[in-house]
Write a structure and sequence with these properties.
Number of domains: 1
CATH topology: Four Helix Bundle (Hemerythrin (Met), subunit A)
Order of helices and strands: HHHHH
CATH architecture: Up-down Bundle
Shape: elongated
Radius of gyration: 18 Å
Helix content: over 70%
Distance between the termini: 21 Å
Structural class: mainly alpha
Length: 170
């Protein structure tokens, strides 16, 4: 299946919407971060932060899924599809697309993917501060890396759109 400029414009708009959601999460995390990161916050704050970190990774994964479905023809399958999707996001697919994120960003996101899995499957477990303290502390920088990488990818999408439109005019 060949994509056209219209499909790429839709993809771009959807990714931009996901980036806006990430920026809102950035604000929510900043408000919830305890003033003393060494002191364990109350359970309700830990739970809220855990959900924010979960939502952050979900928003990032939605970006990867959108691109993978539109350009790579990826369909989630198997037990390791979340990991496979993250790894694919850092790959250049020659003749199709550049990497969505850098390898550095992928390594950082792996920690959030693993934590998302814990949040999603830990029904009765309290969220331990020691397991999330570093994720919370690193969140602003990881979010910045993701947003910068995705903005770079969007610039490539813009060039692809312009190229397709100029080919249509010729």
């Amino acid at each position: 299946m060949v994509v056209d400029a219209r499909q790429l414009r839709v993809l771009k708009a959807e990714i931009q919407s996901d980036l806006r959601a990430i920026r809102r999460l950035d604000e929510a995390v900043a408000e919830a971060v305890p003033t003393d990161p060494e002191k364990e916050p109350p359970k309700v704050v830990r739970s809220g932060l855990a959900l924010y970190l979960h939502h952050f990774y979900e928003a990032v994964e939605h970006i990867f899924l959108r691109v993978a479905r539109a350009l790579d023809h990826f369909q989630p399958a198997g037990e390791a599809w979340h990991r496979d999707l993250l790894e694919a996001a850092a790959l250049e697919i020659e003749g199709i697309r550049p990497p969505i994120i850098s390898e550095t960003t992928r390594v950082e996101l792996e920690r959030y993917r693993s934590f998302r899995h814990i949040v999603r499957h830990a029904y009765e477990r309290e969220f331990l501060w020691k397991s999330m303290k570093d994720l919370v502390a690193d969140y602003p920088e990881v979010s910045r890396l993701v947003r910068a990488d995705v903005e770079t990818f969007l610039a490539v999408l813009d060039r692809m759109i312009r190229q397709l439109e100029s080919d249509d005019e010729a």
